[in-house]
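Hey,
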Amino acid sequence: MKFLFTDLDGTFLGGTRQDQLRLLQAIESSGIGLVYVSGRGHQRIFPAIDSNELARPNAVIGDVGTSLWNGRGEAFSQDYESLVSARWGDGQHLLREQLKEFLNQGLSEQPIFGPRRYSLYYDSPAMAKHAAQRIEALGFDSLISDNQYLDALPRGVNKGFAVSWLMAHWGLTASQVLLAGDTLNDLAMLSLPLPAVVVANAETALKEALLSRNDNPGLMFASQDGAAGIHESLKQLGWL
């Protein structure tokens, strides 16, 4: 079985509603499995699935790779939960204390985020960079994306980590997957040596980072936005 591992906002949900419906119909008629790989948390994904706003997937990687659920919204694997939690420790409490000085100085805490990440908005790139350096010094990974988000994550845990773990768990090979994304929080996933597509409306910083790294021979740059770009790549792979 083949699987599409796709970011949501701007990617699977990018482009026109007509493009999105055409992509969904193509996936369903071709028997392609679906995994959402999102920065969204449980409270922003599963209400949309339960209301049929989003198709029910085979699995959901959420919170930038720090959460993994089955299609019903339950924890996918206790092994994965334990693995990520061990790297996170008491990270949320520590980071909230250590980054307090940055709040109201160009950064603000996001109202909702998962239990194994600490997430901020920023409107000052310089302040976000200083905060990211503090996060790294404390032993966590920092991730700046979409010119507004700053995430602190367990060291080594990101969308790419989660995709690799799930592929190994399911026994999938490179010929069975397509990855799709549009912002810098997709960089780790799109850098894996796997078939992957950057949709045309992706942020410039992501495109530049991928071109400079040049470490994924299976990477494609779509000519169309969002869902249409994914559809274009599925056809290019011969899946449709």
